[in-house]
Amino acid sequence: MNGIGEFQTILLVEDNPDDEELTLLAFKNNHIANSIIVVHDGAEALDFMFRRKAYANRDVRTTPRLVLLDLKLPKLSGFDVLQELRNNDMTRFLPVVILTTSNQDEDIINSYKFGANSFIRKPVEFSKFNEAIKALGMYWLVLNEVPLSTKPSLIKG
Predict the structure, then answer these.
(1) How many other CB atoms are there within 10 angstroms of residue 58's CB atom?
(2) Rg (CA), the chain
(3) The Cα angle at residue 151 between residues 38 and 76, in degrees rounded to 5
(4) Mapped to the 3 state alphabet, what secondary structure does the chain carry?
(5) pTM of the predicted protein model
(6) CA–CA distance, 40 with 48 (Å, rounded to integer)
(7) Mean pLDDT of 83-105
(8) Domain 10-145 has what CATH class?
(9) Does the pLDDT of residue 124 top 90, yes or no?
(10) Total Cβ atoms within 10 A of residue 108
């Protein structure tokens, strides 16, 4: 294997182009060779996950193993996306990591209340963010076990 958790898709839900660029750079710097799909708002995230609209014909093998979800998104908030994912049998157990700049205790509480698996505050300093992405990749893509029902080959289209 060339990188951490290779061949498992990650869905990055991020509306800020600078944060998107930094996240992708951190994945590259840490040799995380996964396919990373980026969507820019909450509605697009749900369309991708549930293969609707522009994503109706997407290959089921691109179903994410991990979702990195910002909270402050256009159209639908990260909380709305999280609740939809948790209310659907196909995505109920899919690991969702909140990756946000928010420092509000209420956002942390609500993230866990609505079913997030983890809450990570984006560090302002890139070297710290880079380390956070390295740890995130190692844990969620290598060490963490997911139920068979969340693996792409078993999700019906």
Answers:
(1) 16
(2) 14
(3) 40
(4) CCCCCCCCCEEEECCCHHHHHHHHHHHHHCCCCCCEEEECCHHHHHHHHCCCHHHCCCCHHHCCCEEEECCCCCCCCHHHHHHHHHCCCCCCCCCEEEEECCCCHHHHHHHHHCCCCEEEECCCCHHHHHHHHHHHHHHHHHHCCCCHHHCHHHCCC
(5) 0.88
(6) 11
(7) 95
(8) alpha beta
(9) no
(10) 16
